């Protein structure tokens, strides 16, 4: 199927098929539009020949002077760009959602999907000249999973009982079966470092296309091409790459307009129409898995009452949010964390819409009186306060009195999110459904920010992990999605798009629904046109 | 210059040091009552309880506050500011670089704004009530009334984006050529100049006008000196103290109050550095920055004091 799509994509590139026709044909093949678009831009760009040399500059948000090069502590865009510049993971998830072998060349499991063996790529050099071995991989995994680990991947690693080296292979033994292990190991924290980074985690030494020149957290990071790159033929086109940290949206745009950088992250939706009119600037938007949410704790009064939760879910106008908060750069959510960008997504689940009558009915049935307090801060997601006010207005028409309590950005993630019973938040999404549910919806999940504590749901997700038949897995995930949608604490009004912008000097830019700036690979996969 | 003057100056210096120590206590206490803790802020939304607990004990946050204050003060006296909790970098080194950048920008902004403000002030007095006075006041008051981010964006739009004369991104880094550095900071320096100009200019004008009413200026005029000579020889020496005062206040602002300008022009100065670390609850860095800022304020005010003592003998003999 994907072969067929790619050949269709080439037809578009050659001008023999229109983009609209392509999407139509793709839909006929059962491919969701975001993936189809991704394939299209991939093949269309394949026509351009990469140019080597020059300096490629990006201005990105999400960088602070507190950043470190330790991939374990990566939590925002700039550190992610850095990690991708100097390091590799065992696997990557491609723009079309498939697993690509990077530092692993093969991956196989036993019949129970409990013991996995990854063959490690041979002859790969670290920037310090040493050769990467299976031991380095094992040490990396151990650093991220040790008792005293601060890694953001600790949650993933908890599912792994042991990691051992076996010659040129690494054996992962799981606590319980998981058919998605390669996806989990593609996590951006799990960058393979010499001796696992135990000696100096923030050295910025890895197997990636670029080695460190200058590291000034919160200001700029400069990297130059590593001549010994094992995959140098397919990436690392620019001689030097420069990541400039610009957190101010207007300043970022000005830097792109005045030609000081080649690409920028996160164009603000409110200026998108102006940006589209700029000469030499290309808006790059792609539907992703990230979503903006309002979350209720299912175990805390008054939200422990499902009727109240349903009342609030019916009382939000999703279309209005997409139109006014995202300026159309996104799609409506359906009160579950999954959308069509995920593999095994079932489109048979009915879309929930704004329904004042049902909302009023459920509200009455819940027996709740008085206002419902919703906590929100500007930093919860872009436009969060405005979204809360829209929510307040639409709820008012259903007879629900929503009281908005504004919190400061400072301390929001430590004092409000995952602590207060009803607040605004966002999720970046994960490559597969299992990972999303495991991260935030299992009873045992640390980030179960809706306090969705359901043994039957846990069992369902676990059964999907061991199920190797995709049709059956899809069925299971449909059931799980319905459960969260109808009984969970998540109000998901919208999925946002990643909106970057490039200028006309950039070649090789491809839409990637996995994350902003081509899932942070833009600097090594793009080039500066001569 | 008698020994009495030296005693006064040394007194001022000692008072400054005492003040700095008091400030250090305040800063330390202040950082203790910030809500949230470093560990949660470092890990952000991605924090798991295990990771939190591990990080917390790593950072020594389980020690009592007074113990941490004295070990901090001890390190401080030896010039050791410690390491940043969030990224493990040496604070003295990173802070030094940022402070250098801030002082560089402040220096050039001051070099433009102070002589310009005083000159404009003098001109305004010279043509008092006539169109040059009104024009100068009008322009400078407009520029101080506009918020600095607005001036910054206007400059970016016209000078960086439209005409591309100067860069909008003022990132400076080690090994950058001096001329490039100057070019990079041109826009923020102009913005800052426009922000501080009016205050100093108006103060100069007011102080000189005040003196101009006095009898000795009238005498000078009567003995036939030109208007500019009167200002330069008789009025100006008598108004140095108030002018230096307001100049020092504005210099202090150029060092400690420019975070908005830093953000807009992406200038790697102290302000942004401090704000980032406050957000991450990186207490040692916040304390170090606080202390440096306090030090700058105290030092500049002391200079203003001492200049006043030197220029006005009456102040040396308090009643």
Brief synopsis:
The complex is a heterodimer of chains A (530) and B (319). Helix content of chain A is 32%, strand content 21%. Chain A has helices at 2-13, 19-28, 33-46, 77-86, 134-145, 154-157, 181-185, 249-257, 272-276, 306-314, 318-324, 356-366, 384-396, 412-415, 433-440, 455-466, 470-487, 516-519, 522-525, and strands at 55-60, 91-93, 99-101, 104-109, 115-120, 160-166, 169-174, 210-216, 220-225, 240-245, 263-264, 281-296, 330-332, 372-376, 402-406, 422-427, 490-503, 506-507, 527-528.
Determine the fraction of residues in helical runs of chain A and give it as a percent range: 25-40%
- The global form of chain A is globular
Cα separation of the termini of chain B = 20 Å
Q: CATH H level of the largest domain in chain A: which superfamily? A: Dipeptide-binding Protein, Domain 3
- What number of structural domains do the residues of chain B give? 2
Q: Helix count of chain B, per DSSP?
A: 13
- Structure annotation, total helices of chain A: 19
What is the ordering of alpha helices and beta strands of chain B? HHHHHHHHHHHHH
> What share of residues are in beta strands of chain B?
under 5%
Low-pLDDT runs of 5+ residues of chain B are none
CATH topology of the largest domain in chain A: Dipeptide-binding Protein, domain 3
The largest sheet of chain B is:
none
- Strand proportion of chain A: 15-25%
Low-confidence stretches of chain A: none
CATH class assignment of the largest domain in chain A? Alpha Beta
Quaternary status: heterodimer
3D architecture notes:
The complex is a heterodimer of chains A (530) and B (319). With 530 residues, chain A is of the alpha+beta class. Chain A folds into four domains: 2-45, no CATH class; 55-64 and 208-287 and 500-528, D-Maltodextrin-Binding Protein, domain 2 (3-Layer(aba) Sandwich); 88-197, Alpha-Beta Complex (Dipeptide-binding Protein, domain 1), CATH 3.90.76.10; 291-496, Dipeptide-binding Protein, Domain 3 (Dipeptide-binding Protein, domain 3, Roll), CATH 3.10.105.10. Chain A is 32% helix and 21% strand. Chain A is built from 19 helices and 19 strands. Chain A has helices spanning 2-13, 19-28, 33-46, 77-86, 134-145, 154-157, 181-185, 249-257, 272-276, 306-314, 318-324, 356-366, 384-396, 412-415, 433-440, 455-466, 470-487, 516-519, 522-525, and strands at residues 55-60, 91-93, 99-101, 104-109, 115-120, 160-166, 169-174, 210-216, 220-225, 240-245, 263-264, 281-296, 330-332, 372-376, 402-406, 422-427, 490-503, 506-507, 527-528. In chain A, strand 4 (104-109) and strand 5 form a beta hairpin. In chain A, helix 16 (455-466) runs antiparallel to helix 17. With 319 residues, chain B is mainly alpha-helical. Chain B has two domains: 3-77, no CATH class; 99-316, MetI-like fold (Orthogonal Bundle), CATH 1.10.3720.10. Chain B has helices at 3-32, 38-43, 49-58, 65-77, 91-126, 131-145, 148-162, 178-212, 215-222, 227-256, 259-265, 270-279, 283-311. The longest helix of chain B is centred in the middle third of the chain and has 36 residues, at 91-126. The chains are: A alpha+beta (530), B mainly alpha (319). At the A-B interface, helix 8 and helix 14 of A face helix 2, helix 3, helix 5, helix 7 and helix 11 of B.
């Amino acid at each position: 199927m994907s072969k067929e799509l790619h050949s269709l994509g080439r037809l578009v590139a050659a001008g023999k098929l229109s983009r609209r026709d392509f999407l139509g044909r793709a839909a006929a093949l059962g491919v969701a539009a975001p993936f189809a678009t991704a394939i299209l831009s991939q093949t269309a760009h394949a026509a351009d020949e990469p140019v080597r040399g020059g300096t490629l500059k990006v201005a990105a948000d999400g960088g602070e002077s507190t950043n470190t090069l330790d991939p374990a502590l990566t939590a925002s865009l700039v550190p992610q760009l850095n990690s991708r510049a100097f390091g590799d993971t065992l696997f990557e998830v491609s723009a079309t959602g498939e697993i690509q072998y990077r530092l692993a060349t093969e991956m196989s499991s036993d019949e129970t999907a409990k013991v996995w063996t990854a063959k490690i790529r041979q002859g790969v050099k670290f920037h310090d000249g040493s050769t990467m071995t299976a031991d380095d991989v094992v040490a990396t995994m151990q650093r991220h999973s040790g008792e005293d680990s601060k890694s953001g991947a600790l949650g993933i690693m908890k599912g792994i009982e042991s990691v051992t080296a076996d010659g040129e292979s690494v054996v992962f033994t799981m606590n319980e079966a998981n058919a998605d292990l390669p996806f989990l190991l593609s996590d951006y924290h799990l960058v393979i470092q010499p001796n696992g980074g135990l000696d100096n985690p923030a050295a910025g030494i890895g197997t990636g296309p670029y080695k460190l020149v200058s590291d000034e957290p919160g200001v700029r990071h400069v990297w130059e091409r590593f001549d010994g790159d094992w995959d140098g033929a397919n990436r690392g086109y620019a001689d030097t790459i420069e990541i400039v940290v610009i957190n101010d949206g207007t300043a970022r745009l000005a830097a792109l307009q005045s030609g000081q950088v080649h690409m920028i992250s996160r164009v603000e939706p409110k200026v998108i129409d102006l940006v589209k009119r700029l000469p030499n600037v290309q808006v790059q938007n792609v539907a992703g898995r990230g979503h903006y949410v309002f979350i209720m704790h299912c175990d805390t009064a008054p939200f422990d009452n499902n009727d109240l939760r349903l009342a609030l879910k019916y009382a939000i106008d999703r279309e209005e949010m997409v139109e006014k908060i995202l300026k159309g750069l996104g799609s409506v959510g359906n009160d579950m964390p999954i959308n069509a960008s995920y593999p095994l997504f079932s489109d048979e689940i009915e879309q929930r819409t704004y329904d004042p009558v049902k909302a009023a009915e459920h509200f009455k049935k819940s027996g709740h009186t008085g206002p419902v307090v919703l906590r929100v801060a500007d930093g919860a997601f872009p436009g969060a306060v405005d979204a809360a006010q829209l929510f307040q207005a639409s709820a008012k028409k259903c007879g629900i009195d929503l009281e908005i309590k504004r919190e400061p950005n400072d301390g929001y993630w430590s004092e409000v999110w995952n602590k207060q019973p009803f607040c605004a938040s966002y999720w970046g999404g994960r490559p597969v459904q299992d990972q999303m549910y495991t991260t935030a919806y299992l009873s045992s999940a640390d980030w179960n920010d809706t306090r969705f504590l359901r043994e039957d749901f846990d069992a369902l997700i676990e059964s999907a992990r061991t199920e190797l038949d995709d049709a059956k897995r899809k069925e299971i995930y449909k059931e799980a999605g319905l459960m969260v949608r109808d009984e969970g604490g998540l109000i998901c009004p919208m999925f946002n798009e990643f909106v970057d912008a490039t200028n006309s000097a950039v070649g090789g830019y491809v839409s990637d629904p996995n994350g902003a700036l081509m899932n942070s690979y833009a600097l090594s996969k793009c080039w500066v046109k001569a | 210059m008698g020994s009495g003057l030296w005693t006064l100056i040394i007194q001022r210096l000692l008072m400054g040091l005492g003040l700095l120590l008091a400030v250090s206590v305040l800063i330390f206490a202040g950082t203790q009552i910030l809500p949230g803790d470093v560990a949660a802020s470092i890990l952000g939304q991605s924090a798991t309880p295990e990771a939190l607990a591990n990080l917390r004990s790593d950072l020594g946050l389980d020690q009592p506050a007074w113990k941490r204050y004295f070990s901090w003060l001890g390190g401080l006296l030896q010039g050791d500011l410690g390491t940043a909790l969030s990224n493990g970098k040496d604070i003295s080194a990173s802070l030094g670089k940022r402070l250098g950048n801030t002082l560089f920008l402040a220096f050039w902004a001051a070099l433009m704004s102070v002589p310009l403000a005083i000159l404009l002030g003098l001109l305004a007095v010279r043509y008092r009530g006539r169109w040059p006075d009104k024009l100068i006041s009008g322009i400078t008051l407009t520029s101080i009334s506009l918020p600095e981010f607005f001036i910054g964006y206007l400059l970016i739009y016209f000078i960086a984006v439209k005409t591309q004369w100067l860069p909008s991104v003022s990132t400076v880094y080690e090994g950058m050529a001096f001329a490039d550095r100057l070019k990079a900071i041109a826009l923020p320096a102009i913005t800052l100049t426009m922000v501080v100009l009016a205050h100093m200019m108006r103060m100069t004008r007011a102080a000189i006008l005040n003196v101009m009413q006095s009898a000795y200026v009238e005498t000078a005029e009567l003995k036939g000196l030109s208007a500019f000579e009167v200002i330069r020889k008789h009025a100006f020496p008598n108004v140095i103290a108030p002018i230096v005062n307001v100049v020092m206040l504005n210099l202090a602002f150029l060092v400690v109050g420019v975070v908005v300008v830093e953000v807009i022009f992406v200038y790697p100065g102290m302000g942004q550095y401090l704000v980032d670390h406050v957000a991450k609850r990186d207490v040692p860095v916040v304390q170090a920055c606080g202390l440096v800022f306090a030090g700058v304020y105290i030092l500049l005010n002391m200079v203003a004091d001492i200049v006043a003592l030197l220029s006005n003998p009456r102040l040396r003999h308090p009643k």
